[in-house]
Amino acid sequence: MNQDISTALYVVNRYWSSHWRQFFTGRYTRPTVFGGYARGYRRPPVCGGKRLAYMNAFYCRPGDYIAWDLGLMRDGYSSGDAWVYLIIAHEWGHAVQARLNAGLVSRAKELQADCLAGAVLYGAAYDGTLRFESGDVEELADALTELADETPWTDVGDHGNATQRVSSFTQGARYGVYGCLPSS
C-alpha cells in the first residue's frame, strides 16, 4: 500500500505540474503532503483550529496540505489498489480548486473534485505515467460507490450519491479537466 500511495502522489503531482498551463494561468504549486495518520501512530493534524477526524481524508485549505487516515486507506486498499489513487487524486483536486479563480470552482465542490480525479488519473494514463491494470476501472467505481453520502462517515449532501460520484469521475475521465469546469 505504501508504494501505491507514493506512486499516486508522484503521478498526480506530475500530471498537474506538466499540464497546469494548458488549462490555467499562473504558476502551479503543489500542496504539502502531511500524509497518513492513525490512532497510536501519528495524531491527525489541525486544520483551521480543529483536529482532523479519523477514518477520513482531507485537503486543508488554510494549511494547504492533504492528509488521510491510514485505517481508511488500508480498509479501501483491501478491495483494490485503485482506492489510494482515487483518494489522493480527489483530495488533490480540492487543492487545485483552492488555486483557481472562484468562477472556475463548481458549487458542487466534492463532485468537481471527483471529476478532476478522473481527469488526472486518465490523463496520467494517456501520458504514460500511470498504467491501469485489469479490474482498476471496476475498483474505482466501487470506491466511489462506497465513499458516497450513504456512508456513516459522510454528511448527506457532501459528496453526492453513488451515481453522482461515478458520473462526475467518468466525466473527467472522458472529457479531461475542461469537462470539470463550470460552463460560462
Features:
about 180 residues; mainly alpha; 3-stranded mixed sheet; two-stranded antiparallel ribbon; 6 helices; globular; Putative metalloprotease; hydrolase; metalloprotease; metallopeptidase activity
Task: Explain what you see.
This is Putative metalloprotease. Keywords: Hydrolase, Metalloprotease, Protease. InterPro entries: Uncharacterised_pept_Zn_put. GO terms for molecular function: metallopeptidase activity. With 184 residues, the protein is mostly helical. It has one domain. The chain has 6 helices and 5 strands. It has helices at residues 2-23, 70-77, 82-98, 109-127, 136-146, 162-175; strands spanning 32-37, 46-47, 50-51, 57-60, 65-69. It has a 3-stranded mixed sheet. Strands 2-3 form a two-stranded antiparallel sheet. Helix 1 (2-23) crosses helix 4 and helix 3 crosses helix 4 (109-127). The protein starts with a helix and ends in a 9-residue tail after the last helix. Mean pLDDT is 89; it is low at 149-157.
